[in-house]
Fold this sequence. Notes:
Layout: E1 2-7, E2 10-13, E3 18-26, E4 31-39, E5 46-51, E6 57-59, E7 67-72, E8 77-82, E9 91-100, E10 107-111, E11 115-120
Parallel strand pairs: 2-11
Antiparallel strand pairs: 1-3, 3-8, 4-5, 4-9, 5-6, 7-8, 9-10, 9-11
Amino acid sequence: QVQLVESGGGLVQAGGSLRLSCAASGSTFGLNGMGWYRQAPGKQREMVANIFRDGIATYADSVKGRFTISRDNADNTVYLIMNSLKPEDTAVYYCYGDAKLYAGGPYKDYWGRGTQVTVSS
Length: 121
């Protein structure tokens, strides 16, 4: 009941920047946490950044000081601003959100289809 669509991926040189966007639609009134995961070929999916509705954010140690997550609750969009990109940041980046779809019910996780980020050396 929540749809997430990522955009903004691409190819950049090391040291460059990208901004990823994730637009949520559907039952967005129930969204709480939103964030970004990434997965490189042959690697497990890992958490990159998470942000709650009140703006409190957490980051993986590998991206602290380089990436910034933000969200616009008015248009149900979460962003990931990636600066000082490194080749090891190359991965498919997935947007996620968790939402309680009815009063008293459990939270359910939702995932976008992913957007490719490639950083050349």
